[in-house]
Amino acid sequence: MADPRFFPAAGPTRLADIAGAAGASFEGDPDRLFTGVGPLQAAGPDDVSFLDNRRYAGLLAETRAGAVILAGAFAGQVPAGTVALVTPQPYLGFARAARLLHPPPAPVPGIHPTAVVAADAVVGEGTEIGPHAVIGAGARIGRGCILGAQVTVGPAVEIGDHCRLLPHSSVSHAILGEGVVLHPGARIGQEGFGFAPTPDGRFETMPQLGRVILGDFVEVGANACVDRGSQGDTVLGPGTRLDNLVQIGHNVRTGRGCVVVGQAGIAGSTVLEDYVTVAAQAGLTGHLRIGAQARIGAQAGVMNDVPAKTDVIGSPSMPVREFWRAMAKLKALGGGRGGEGKAG
C-alpha cells in the first residue's frame, strides 16, 4: 500500500476518471470513489489493483480491492463487489491510474534562501529551487521545474519546462528538453574519459569540448553518469531511460525510447538506434552501431555491431539461439568427461 506520508493521494477519485486514465471499460457506478492503489492481496474496497500475470490469477478470487485493472480474459473471475476495469494493456493502464491517484509532487514556486542563483540566470515561472542549490551564470531554467536540495546547474546550461532534478544531481555543458528527470546523484556533462599517452609514460587529457543533449522526457537514474562529447555531442533521444549506475561514454548517441538497465556501460561513440534495450551489467565497446529494437542481454559483452531486431547474449555476445546451442554443447561435453575435475 502507498504510505500517505510519502505518497499523498490526490483523491478521492471517481471510477469513471480512473477508467479513463487506464483506457479501460467497466460496468458499475461511474461516481464510485477511490483513494489509492495496492496489490491484489492487500488492497481494500477503496483501492485499485491490477492483474497482468496469470501466475497471480489465484489471488484475484480472494482480493478485497474495489476495482482491478485486467485483461478481458479474467473479467469474469473478479469477486462480488469488485469492478473489473478491462483493458488490453493492464500494466500500462495501472501505471496511468496510479499516477492519477498518486501524482508526483507539484513544484512549490520560489527560491530557497540558501540557494545561490547567478544574477543573470533565468528561472521560469512556477519553478522551485531547493536548499543549497547552485545555478550558474547564464543558465536558463524552464517553467514549472523542481530543482531539489544541493542540485548544481552549471553556467549556460539550458533546462526545459517541467523538469525534475532531484537532490545532489548535477548538470554542466548540457541542454535538457522538456520533462527531463534526473534522479539523486545523477551526473550530466562531466568530462569524458579521454587521454593521449606521452613518450615518457604520462597521460595528457584530451579536451572534451562537446555537450550533452537530453531529449524530451529522458530519465536518468540515481548515480548514473552521462559524459559530454569530446568533439561532437553526447545525445540521448526523446524518451530514453537510464537505470541507476549506468555509464554513458562521450559521443554516445541513442535514438528514441532506448532503455539501459542498471550497471550497464556504453563506451564512446557507440550509436543505439530507436528502441534498443540494454539489460543489466551489459558492456558495449566503442564505435558500434546497435540496430533499432535490438535487445542486449544481461552481462553481455558486445564487441561488434548488432543488426536491428536482433537479441544477443553472452560474452563475447552472439545471437540468443547460437548462445544456447553453444551452452548445450558445452554441457554435453562436460557431462561426457567421466566426472573428471570433480573435487575430492
From TrEMBL:
Record key words, sorted: Acyltransferase, Lipid A biosynthesis, Lipid biosynthesis, Lipid metabolism, Repeat, Transferase
Catalytic center residues = H250 (proton acceptor)
Domain UDP-3-O-[3-hydroxymyristoyl] glucosamine N-acyltransferase non-repeat region, chain residue ranges per copy? 32-100
Pathway field? Bacterial outer membrane biogenesis; LPS lipid A biosynthesis
- The EC designation for this entry is 2.3.1.191
Query: What is catalysed by this protein?
Result: a UDP-3-O-[(3R)-3-hydroxyacyl]-alpha-D-glucosamine + a (3R)-hydroxyacyl-[ACP] = a UDP-2-N,3-O-bis[(3R)-3-hydroxyacyl]-alpha-D-glucosamine + holo-[ACP] + H(+)
Q: How is the quaternary structure described? A: Homotrimer.
Q: Which family does it belong to?
A: Belongs to the transferase hexapeptide repeat family. LpxD subfamily.
Q: According to its UniProt entry, what is the function of this protein?
A: Catalyzes the N-acylation of UDP-3-O-acylglucosamine using 3-hydroxyacyl-ACP as the acyl donor. Is involved in the biosynthesis of lipid A, a phosphorylated glycolipid that anchors the lipopolysaccharide to the outer membrane of the cell.
Protein name as annotated: UDP-3-O-acylglucosamine N-acyltransferase
